[in-house]
Structure formats: C-alpha cells, structure tokens
Amino acid sequence: MQATLIYNSNARNINQISPDEIKEALHDMGYEPVYKSTSSQEDLDPILANTEEGLVIVAGGDGTVRAVATRLIDKDLPLAIIPLGTANNISKTLDIYCDPKEILEGLKEPVEHKYDVGYVRGPWGADYFLEGAGFGMFADILASYDPNKGKSVLRSIQAAIENFTEQKSYYPLISIDGRKFIDSHLLVEVLNTKAIGPRLQFAPDADPTDGYFNIVQVKENEDETLLNYATGLFMENLHEYESVVCSKAKKVEIQWTGFPFHIDGEVRPKQTERPADRNPAEGAGPFVYDANDDNIVSIEILEGALTLWLPKLDNNE
C-alpha cells in the first residue's frame, strides 16, 4: 500500500524525527512511502488532488493536520498523524501524543476511528474546522495577534494584554440545537477537541468521535473577570465558574455583527474592525431566524467525516 507522507519542515519539533526516518519505518512496515515536503498550504492542493489510494500520514502541528484533513473529506483515504507542532491539541485529544517512533510502531496495527468535522457557513464563505470555532475573548486575542504575521511570543503577550484591559461583551442572537436566546457573552466556543489555540482547555471531556460539539458559553458577570477565566483555563476548572455554561449540540447559529470569528487558528474575516454591539432590547426573548439573513453564521457537525488510523497504544486499544 502507498503511504503519502506530508511533512511540514517548518513545524516546531521536527528535530524529533526526520522524513528519512519516517520513510524507513513505513518501508519496514510494508508501505511504499511517497514523501512530500510542504512549506505552505498551497503546496497541498496538487499533492492531494493526485492522491487517490493508500494511507496519508501527516507530520506537523494542528494547522498542518487541519490543512491536510480538510482536503481529504471527500476522499476515501485514511489519515495518520505524527504530532510535531507546539500545541498538538488534536493528537492530545486522541491520546496519541507520544514519541513519533512509538506512533509509527503502533501503526503496524492501526486502530480505525471516525473523526467528526465542523462545517461553518458565514458571510465570508464556508470553512471546516477540527478543533473549534467561536467569538469573544479568544477570537479577539487571535485577531489582535494576527497569525498571518507569523509566530511571535512578544506579539501574543501584547495581544493578550490589549484585550484583557478591555473586557468586551457581545449580544448576538444565538440558537443551540433550536434553543434560541439573546444574552451578554464574553465568549462562545463550539468545540470538537479538549483544547484550542495554545492548549486552552475549554472542554476537558470533548470527544471528536461522539457526533456532538461541546459548547462553552462565558456570560458577562460583574463578579468575574477575564483574569478569573484565564486562571480557570490554567487550572482546568473553568466549568466550575458561575457564569460558564457548558452543553452539547449538533448545530449552532449565531447572528454575526462584524466581530472577529475564529475557525481553529484562523480569523474570519481576515481583516476586521469590531463595530459597536447592539444591546438587546429590554425584555427581548426568543426570536426567529430569517432564512435569507446573510449575517448568520451556521455551524454544523459532519459526523465521522474523516477516517483516522491511530497507533495501537496501551491507552487506545
């Protein structure tokens, strides 16, 4: 069987294993390895367009995994992951965050899993996500940081400080599996993995194979601040806060008023200014969406859209 290796040479932890070592291991396992080095997502289009059979194995971080996986949704090809990134939220959620050579050894007897994918339609177009999507605190920081400018610890600190000093609240109309409401939110995240971004663990019990999103709402509360929520994320007890509401759902709709909206580690629209939000009218209650409203962000789960081959390890047998 052919094994197409996608190796991100810009990943942070490429020192853990080289393409030649992966190719040699795949060859020893009986595969015919085909190595494809990538430095940008655009490189993937011609590579994966011509890949019609065998296994696709991606070595890189969450961004590389997403870029490859979303190009395989309409293809009947299994995907295996060797995490070499900084956060590796996907592999950690799947309990396969370990030494790359151990992963390769475990792929001699792969365990097949169906992985759910998020599908987002908004005024800017359509997107897929593997980790999560949402608006508020994290999306604001990500927009200020601007991942398109490359990775920078200094810029990430500046972005966090900038947004922590101004606690922004949002009042969009929201529907969660048909339950419609208006409220004041600091954050709403629709999650497929336990953590997003720099290992921000919003949903410790998330399972991307169960057919449901984990929804985390952080509502405005004068007794709690962004610093409190940041502490909750660090201590992994965010769900215990009074203003945090956790639930599971298959479909979420959000009325978009121009605020930054993140899809995994990217922001939509790519450049945006946050307009003033509208406060809900006094006594506002349930509403009905206009099917022709161009400002609705619709988020649906595509159950089992990806086929993953996980290594047979002690923790996932």
Describe this structure as you would to a colleague.
The protein is α+β, with helices and mostly antiparallel strands and 317 residues long. It has two domains: 108 residues, Probable inorganic polyphosphate/atp-NAD kinase, domain 1 (Rossmann fold, 3-Layer(aba) Sandwich), CATH 3.40.50; 184 residues, Tumour Suppressor Smad4, CATH 2.60.200. Helix content is 21%, strand content 32%. Strands 6-5-16-13-8-9 form a six-stranded antiparallel β-sheet, with no helix packed on it. A six-stranded antiparallel β-sheet has the order 12-11-10-7-14-15. A four-stranded parallel β-sheet has the order 2-1-3-4, sandwiched between helices. Strand 5 and strand 6 form a beta hairpin. The longest helix is centred in the middle third of the chain and has 12 residues. The protein is globular and about 60 Å long.
